[in-house]
Design goal:
alpha/beta, Aspartate Aminotransferase, domain 1, Aspartate Aminotransferase, domain 2, 7-stranded mixed sheet, 15 helices, 14 strands
């Protein structure tokens, strides 16, 4: 065999050296391997809601709606921007109580909230520009920025365990605008991943004041990533919605909407990016740009999935059924939240206010070392800079106390 001549890498330089495996999935694999060997291991790494027997919690009505989608509906292409009935149902889900916001909205279908975030980053920032988010953030924000040739800049999330650091946002937003003339701010609320924090009315008032001031000088886009909204404490989404209405007076407001958690169908890949624009001509232009982005990225989304989700959102029989089933899951999750708060307060752990949602984080100086000590104790959590992320969603209620004890020992 003639010796192959070595050529330069086929990978373009910007794609070289990328990690192919997700560290959270690697930890999850290790925990599951130990469980399969019969070890008594608690696995709080993944972001899916499990029941107390460790099975994926699936809303029965959602599963039925998916199974009732007819073959031609799975087989045919969907419209590029998404089926109008689906987009209307998403907008109504977000803004039924605010007809002005609903009338000012334009939406496109995306594969999950991830696709919505992708479109937001690629459509409202130039290549090389930085998105702005809290310094505790969902890791894929950085991946999405990298993959789309944008960067990520953060501001300090918390002024205290009870308050967002609005001054840090003010300073960072000013600096980003000075550097690049436009800004895109991603806020994940309610039930922030990874911290579990839900913004208070005071936090939102602070954000509105800061963004409003900057947005009068330069284009500011605010993306609300509300992937966990259906699991929040009552009223949390109302607070966010009222703030969005105020923000929309000066800034471009986007919502990254996702069916993954809302309907416990993570693999269905159904989502939407919703943009609020009071000006009809601008709304048309943004709608066109987003539809073009769909065509140029994934063409169209899962038609069968969107058909099922449209029924779940809009059918007068299915909607109350699925909402009632979800309320049961929220009760299950809230039981774990209460158990965590009780045990964590007693153990003196430091963590942001946690009133609901899939995750919480405990502040930890050397999180990697603490997580390693916990693994030796048979408890798996995710170390992130400055904290341990605990997937309360994946822990049985009976395992919460042991998890808190393991955290307390490891810190
Ligand atoms: C903070 C946050 N945003 C968005 C998403 C989007 O998920 P999906 O693309 O499945 O809708 C997730 C999923 O884990 C998330 O944790």
């Amino acid at each position: 065999m003639p010796e192959l001549q070595r050529v330069a890498s086929h990978l373009i330089p910007s794609r070289q050296g990328r990690s192919g495996d997700d560290p959270i999935f690697a930890l999850n694999d290790e925990a599951r391997t130990r469980q399969a060997r019969g070890e008594d291991v608690l696995n709080a790494t993944l972001g899916a809601l499990l029941d107390d027997e460790g099975r994926l919690a699936v809303l029965p009505t959602a599963a039925r709606a998916v199974s009732e989608v007819a073959a031609p509906d799975w087989a045919a292409y969907a419209p590029i921007a998404g089926p109008p009935a689906f987009l209307d149902a998403v907008i109504a889900d977000l803004f039924a109580t605010d007809p002005t916001l609903a009338a000012q909205s334009v939406a496109v279908a995306t594969p999950g909230g991830s696709g919505a975030l992708r479109h937001a980053i690629a459509t409202f920032l130039e290549p090389g520009q930085a998105l702005l988010t809290t310094d505790f953030f969902w890791g894929p924000y950085k991946t999405l920025a990298d993959e789309n040739e944008r960067t990520l800049r953060t501001f300090r999330t918390f002024a205290s365990a009870e308050a967002l650091d609005v001054d840090a946002l003010d300073e960072a937003l000013g600096a980003v605008l000075a550097a690049q003339g436009r800004a895109l701010l991603i806020l994940n609320d309610p039930c922030h991943n990874p911290s579990g924090y839900s913004m208070s009315p005071e936090d939102w008032a602070g954000v509105c004041a800061v963004v409003g001031r900057h947005a009068r000088e330069a284009p500011v886009t605010v993306v609300l990533d509300n992937a966990y909204a259906a699991f929040a404490a009552p009223g949390a989404m109302d607070t966010a919605r009222a703030a969005l209405a105020e923000l929309a007076e000066t800034a471009l407001v986007l919502v990254a909407w996702s069916a993954s958690k809302t309907f416990t169908h993570y693999g269905l890949r159904v989502g939407s990016l919703v943009a609020v624009l009071p000006d009809a001509d601008e709304r048309r232009q943004v709608g066109n740009a987003l539809a073009y982005a769909c065509r140029g990225t994934w063409s169209n989304c899962n038609r069968g999935g969107m058909t099922a989700v449209t029924r779940l959102l809009a059918d007068p029989v299915l909607r109350p059924q699925v909402d009632a089933e979800r309320a049961e899951l929220v009760r299950l999750l809230n039981g774990r939240v209460t158990a965590f708060n009780t045990a964590a307060r007693a153990a003196g752990l430091k963590y942001p206010r946690y009133a609901g949602g899939f995750f919480t984080t405990v502040f930890a100086e050397d999180a990697k070392a603490a997580a390693a000590r916990m693994r030796a104790d048979g408890v798996y959590v995710v170390p992130i800079p400055g904290a341990l992320r605990i997937g309360i969603c994946a822990l049985p209620t009976s395992g919460i106390e042991r998890t808190v004890e393991a955290v307390a020992r490891a810190l």
